[in-house]
Each structure stands twice: as C-alpha cells, then as structure tokens.
C-alpha cells in the first residue's frame, strides 16, 4: 500500500522527517538518514528550508527518495515563492513521482541565516491547500485548464498545545475544507493536553499523526518552552535530561520519547518523528517496537 492507502486502511502510521543539507552531498540524507529506516516508516517528510535556513530543496530530495522506492512527503512552504511558482512546483512534484504533499505557511525569514531576504507569503497554508486541490481538479488558481491533472494526498499541520486551542480547531476545519486529508502535529510533550485536543478534533474524522521531537538536552527543552508557541515540556522531562550524564542522554531521550509515543498511540492514527539532526531514530523506533 502507498501512504494514501495506508491512511484509509486504519493502520497506525509512522513518518519521519529528513532535512536536506546545506550543500550537495546528498548521500548524507539518502544513505545515513533515510536508508536505515527503509521498511520501518511509512513516509519521509522532506523539509522545505526549515527555520528559514538556506538548504538543498525539498523537491529534488523527494524525487531521489521516490527513485529508491522510499515514499516521500513533499513539504512546501509559502514563504519563498509566489502563487505561480508554488503551482509550478506542485506540478513538477507530480511529474517527478511525488504524490504526498504537506502544506505549511513557513517560518519568518528573521529566524534563519538570511534574515535580510524578502519573504513572499503570496499565499498561506489554507489558500495553498485550496490551490493544490484545484490543480487536482484540472485547473490552475485562475481557472485555466491544465493539460493533465495531478493527484495528491494533501496534508497540513496543527498545534495541539496552542492556547487558545479553539483557534487551532477552527483553522484545522478550514484546512480540511481546503483539501487536507491528514495532519501532523507540533511536538507533543504533555499527554493530558493532547488527549483533550484529540477529543475535540476527533469530530473531523481526519487522521492525525502526533509529533515527537526527541530531547537532546535540558537546555533544548527550556528553549522550546520559552520560544516556541504551543510547546510545553513538563518539568519531569527537563529534570530527567538535566540529571542524565552526557553518555546517558541518548538513552534518557529515547526513554522519554517511548513514553510519549506509547501515550499517544491510543489517541491518534500515527506518530511523526522529527529528529532535527538527532541520529538515533532507528533506536527509538526499535525501543518503541514500531520498527
């Protein structure tokens, strides 16, 4: 089954994020990040210049993954391209064998390594979802007929920990109406908050994959608490990472992540792992018995 068919089957899904490098040494992404997870995950999200840092593009990496028989999920953000370019990239993705697309608005350029560049934001995530859906109907965003139409499994993101959560639920509903067939969430550390969110979101009948970002240190946890909206790492996890010796941090991080994955497994349709440079995703999947 492909990713779209697995979504419809009711299977518990596992997706993992891979990040293109700043450069052209593509072997690092393909051989060191993706290949070890062959047969262990249902899809590979390829980030689109995450955190506004200039990198190799998501599109060619997705194409190379597809050539290897590894199913990519093409992340596309609205930050860097106007409506013409976004539509063109979506058509190009389909021609290159890419069928899964995750639509995001994108981080602001001031967060990245080229803060002086001009952001575009011609569209936002909801309007881009509508555009992508229109392409699958055989027309561009201006109503012009296409010579051959693409087929996409469209996804979007949601932040279960955002306050007030009602705003996230409203936007989630808008994204579903615009064409989203699945959601991947921001990182989850508070299971009680996630459970409350899912009780509200289950009415939408759309698969949700809970996000996991393994902790690298207590400092990382504190930074996210202070700077990333909707993320709240409980004090017990911060303390566990702080008390772990350097050589024990990976083991402790896996322990925390396993606890979280087991907690969300009964609440949603899958897990989305965002390693963010962490090299132990396979160990985590094995420990969680998902590998």
Structural class: alpha/beta
Beta percentage is: 5-15%
What share of residues is helical?
40-55%
Q: If you consult CATH, what is the topology of the domain at 3-158?
A: TIM Barrel
Please state the second-level CATH architecture of the domain at 3-158: Alpha-Beta Barrel
User: Mean of residue pLDDT?
Assistant: 95
Describe the structure.
This protein has a domain at about 5-160: Alpha-Beta Barrel (TIM Barrel). The chain is built from eleven helices and eight strands. It has helices at about 5-10, 25-35, 60-65, 85-95, 125-135, 165-180, 190-200, 220-225, 235-245, 250-265, 280-285, and strands at about 15-20, 45, 70-75, 100-105, 155-160, 180-185, 210, 270-275. Strands 1-2-3-4-5-6-7-8 form an eight-stranded parallel β-barrel, surrounded by seven helices. The longest helix has 16 residues, at about 250-265.
Brief summary of the model shown:
The chain is an alpha/beta fold and 291 residues long.
Topology:
Blueprint: H1 3-9, E1 13-18, H2 27-34, E2 43-46, H3 58-67, E3 72-77, H4 83-95, E4 100-104, H5 125-136, E5 153-158, H6 165-178, E6 182-187, H7 191-201, E7 208-212, H8 218-227, H9 235-243, H10 249-264, E8 270-273, H11 281-287
Parallel strand pairs: 1-2, 1-8, 2-3, 3-4, 4-5, 5-6, 6-7, 7-8
Helix pairs in contact: 4-5, 5-6, 8-9, 10-11
């Amino acid at each position: 089954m492909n990713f779209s068919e697995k979504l419809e089957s009711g299977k518990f899904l596992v997706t993992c994020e891979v990040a293109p490098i700043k450069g052209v040494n593509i072997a690092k992404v393909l051989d060191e990040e993706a290949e070890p997870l062959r047969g262990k995950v249902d899809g590979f999200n390829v980030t689109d210049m995450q955190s506004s840092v200039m990198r190799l593009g998501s599109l060619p990496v997705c194409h190379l993954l597809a050539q290897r028989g590894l199913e990519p999920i093409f992340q596309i953000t609205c930050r860097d391209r106007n409506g013409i370019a976004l539509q063109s990239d979506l058509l190009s993705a389909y021609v290159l064998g890419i069928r899964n697309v995750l639509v995001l608005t994108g981080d602001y350029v001031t967060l990245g390594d080229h803060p002086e560049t001009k952001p575009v934001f011609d569209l936002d995530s909801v309007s881009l979802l509508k555009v992508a859906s229109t392409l699958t109907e055989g027309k561009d965003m201006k109503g012009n007929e296409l010579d051959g139409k693409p087929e996409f499994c469209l996804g979007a993101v949601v932040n279960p920990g955002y306050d007030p959560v009602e705003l996230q639920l409203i936007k989630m509903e808008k994204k579903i109406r615009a064409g989203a067939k699945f959601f991947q969430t921001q990182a989850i550390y508070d299971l009680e908050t996630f459970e409350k969110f899912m009780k509200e979101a289950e009415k939408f009948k759309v698969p949700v994959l809970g996000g996991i970002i393994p902790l690298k240190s207590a400092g990382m946890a504190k930074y996210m608490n202070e700077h990333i909206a909707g993320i709240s790492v409980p004090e017990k996890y911060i303390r566990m990472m702080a008390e772990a010796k350097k050589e024990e941090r990976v083991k402790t991080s896996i322990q925390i992540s396993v606890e979280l994955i087991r907690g969300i497994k009964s609440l949603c349709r899958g897990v989305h792992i965002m390693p963010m440079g962490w090299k132990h995703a396979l160990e985590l999947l094995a420990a969680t018995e998902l590998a």
